[in-house]
Amino acid sequence: MSYSIKRAAVIGAGIMGAGIAAHLANADIPVLLLDIVPPDAAESTDRAARSRIAQSGLEKALKAKPASAFYTAKSARLVTVGNTVDDWETLGEVDLVVEAVIEQLDVKRDTFARLEPVRKSDAIVTSNTSGIPAAQMMAGRSDDFQRHFLITHFFNPVRFLKLLELVPGPQTDPELMRFMGQFATEKLGKGVVYCKDTPNFIGNRIGAYGFLVTLRHMLDEGYTIEEVDAILGPVMGRPRSAAFRTADLAGLDTFAHVVANLYANLPNDPQREIFKLPDFALEMVKRGWIGDKAGQGFYKRIRIDEGKQTLTLDPATLEYRPEQPAKFASIDAVKRNPDVYERIRGLVNSDDRAGKLAWELTADTLLYTAATTPEIADDLVNVDRAMRWGFNWEVGPFETWDALGVEATAKRMVAEGRTLPPLVEEVLGNGTGRFYVEEPQRSYWDFNTHAYTPVPPTGPTLSLAALHKSEKVVKSNGSASLLDMGEGVLCVEFHAKMNAIDADIIAMLNEAVTEGKKNWRAVVIGNDAPDFCVGANLFLVLMGAKSGAWDEIDRGTRALQDANMALKYSDVPVVVAPAGRTLGGGAEIVMHGQGVRAAVETYIGLVEVGAGVVPAGGGCKELLARWQTLTPEQGPFPAVRHSFETIAVATVATSAYDAMNYGFIRKNDAITWDRERLLADAKADALALVEAKDKGAWRKPEPQTFRLPGPGGRLVLEQVAEGLKLQGKASEHDVVVSSHLAYVLTGGNCSPLDVLSEQDILDLEREAFVELCKFEKTQERMAALLTTGKPLRN
Ligand code: NAD
Q1: Using CB atoms within 10 A of its CB, is residue 754 exposed (0-12), middle (13-18) or buried (19+)?
Q2: For residue 457, what pLDDT is reported?
Q3: Nearest residue CA, atom 36 of ligand 1?
């Protein structure tokens, strides 16, 4: 049987259903989104009123915070809403139906029963249940329906969380499992984990256990919420939101459902009693203190005077008190170590309060995971992946165990009176004492065959940390390195604080072009950090401005311009690979790449006006050049206006696709959905350019020229800025910055007949930049960004 998905439907337009519909639309698949007819519209003939719930789900997905569930406004237009009465027959036209109704077995069963007679004979049906076994949902369905059915367990928010758990039912076609694995990986950019049909599958079973033992230790041993979050955060390779901020984000009500389901459905689990919320948490659910969506949970933000304050819940009194940041010597000792394994090792072997709790929680979680894995997964790789991709852990439980040393860890556990599960005993006796071995290739201990089996690949990945470890560093300074990516490709990696551009980064960019020409076939600029680059190092600019070092600021700006021009006109192909925040100077580096391979979650923008200046690393020039080629027949002004409108309000694209609409990335640049594949894809792009170059099918770009409107055009843009000021939408200094921007974009004092070079525009950018640095209000903006991280509207 061969499967394909050209059209889809989602039933249930709640937080998950709407999120899934949005993500399918992001993948260019038209989706029908259905929900029930609201009771007050049961008799109505007004179609819009009857489909109101689905419509509201769609609107919430569009406006979701911190970012829309959609990559672009255009993808949102691929979703059509309807209701489960009037539009039910239309389900017969789709290739995939995803059920995402409320978590009630009878409602899900009834949905599938109604779907059976209308679905297309080869349509795939999936459920997004958090934990109801497939076998129970499929009771009463035909064999054919069951062959086409599986569970697709997405995590919230669907757009951002990489994990997708796939769970077969009793009769699921194995070919369908394979197809969905491939579809989810390649089309939806998900990290697929295969689970057995057990309560709450892998991620939530282990994740819930981990959170519940944390609560128990916290209460028994008197830790505060802040102390736990300090311990279970980045220092242990967990996300910044640690335990309790993550719980507030996910919602304690949702968690309570998962916990209740686990308790009810795990009668034989030796640790069943842990699957109960402590009284204080039950009371929180009762009071509706369920987290961010209710405005309060374990933490609460309140307004005081001009600012905001965070309060923390005291579980003993259920009262909020001001947050008290936690500090531990053991954490301070390890937190700056970039090696996550060394941090974890250091912390669990410390004997202060943080070390003690870190060890207790690690020991409990590792033991429960090892005891449960054979029941919930085919292998331990899927468990490690579930925890990394669903919970943003840097390393999975079995990887952690290897890093701590299975033997040493087991000895300590036994000495403390804990019992080792059979899987650990087996590994201790297998001759290596490891869950994973690296030679001759990365393999895991397979508890089914009692032998090492190669880890199934997740697609091409390339980690710069691994290149550092295997001594592939060609050159390095304090802020950047050149790394050998193999096959003649040289990588420029930034590793400064927030990857802010300084002289060291610029030096390494220049070095890459010169060194690249001599000894390499291509250059990739990318890194493993969450944010590609937040822009120029403002501290240095501000210091220069405060001391009136205008020539120095001019020289520093020119250095970035020259480096970017060298990238653009490099003889060896240059591919830039941004991900995460790519702002100001970071965006300018991307815009000078001969090729771009962007992670879909790239937030790129020329945001310099927030710092009271204009883009001066070639950003104005490149945006003009792009719009000029897009609208050549309309004369110079539309390109100028587009560029002005984009830069003057510090537009930041909300995805790589959105970035294409603004011109930050070209339509023929490439996008990778799975961040882990980004650098491997960028390297492949670079090699493809090399091949094209060798065949004479690719050449470095030709220098561009510009015709710009001059002072006449500038006047028009200045009037726009004045108009915004009159409406209260722009401050006096916004108008000053805008008029400098207008000056650059319209070509300064040129005549519309002049032909300007790239260097002419670069000179204008620099002139405006230095002039703006002289304003006190610009310096205030820079200082505010440096101290608060937020732009100041002065
Ligand atoms: P939700 O309450 O936000 O939305 C459920 C939607 O289903 C509502 O809009 C409701 O009107 C609709 N609905 C109820 N009965 C229906 C019916 N008979 N036909 C059509 N629509 C119907 O819930 P949610 O959080 O979106 O959860 C949906 C499913 O996804 C549940 O099975 C849940 O366990 C699962 N899930 C939730 C999360 C999460 O974090 N919220 C994560 C993974 C899986």
Answers
A1: middle
A2: 84
A3: 130
> What strands lie across the sheet with 480-486, from one edge to the other?
473-476, 480-486, 489-494, 522-526, 574-577, 595-599, 670-672
Ligand 1 centre distance from Cα of residue 106 (Å) = 13
Q: Say how many Å lie between the CA of residue 14 and the centre of ligand 1.
A: 5
Compute the distance between CA of residue 485 and CA of residue 463 in angstroms, rounded to an integer.
9
pLDDT at residue 155 in the model: 95
Q: Are 717 and 745 in contact (CB under 8 A)?
A: yes
CB-CB contact of 491 with 526 (8 Å): yes
Q: What is the mean pLDDT of residues 594-616?
A: 97
Cβ-based neighbours of 457, under 8 Å, separated by 6 or more: none
Distance (angstroms) between ligand 1 centre and the Cα of 9 equals: 14
Q: Which helix (H) or strand (E) holds 712?
A: helix 711-726
- Summarize pLDDT for 117-174 with one digit per residue, the tens: 999 999 999 999 998 999 999 999 999 999 999 999 999 999 999 999 999 999 999 9
Query: What is the mean pLDDT of the segment spanning 395-399?
Result: 97
Containing H/E element for 667? none
Residue among 84, 31, 40 nearest 58 (CA): 31
**Which of 101, 158, 249 to mutate for ligand 1's pocket (most ligand atoms within 8 Å of CB)?**
101
- Region of 486 (left: φ > 0; alpha: ψ -120 to 50; beta: rest) is left
Ligand 1 site: residues with CB under 6 angstroms? Answer: 11-17, 35-36, 53, 57, 84, 100-103, 107, 111, 128-130, 153-156, 254
To the nearest 10 degrees (0 to 180), the angle between helices 52-62 and 15-26 is 60
99 CA → ligand 1 middle, Å: 9
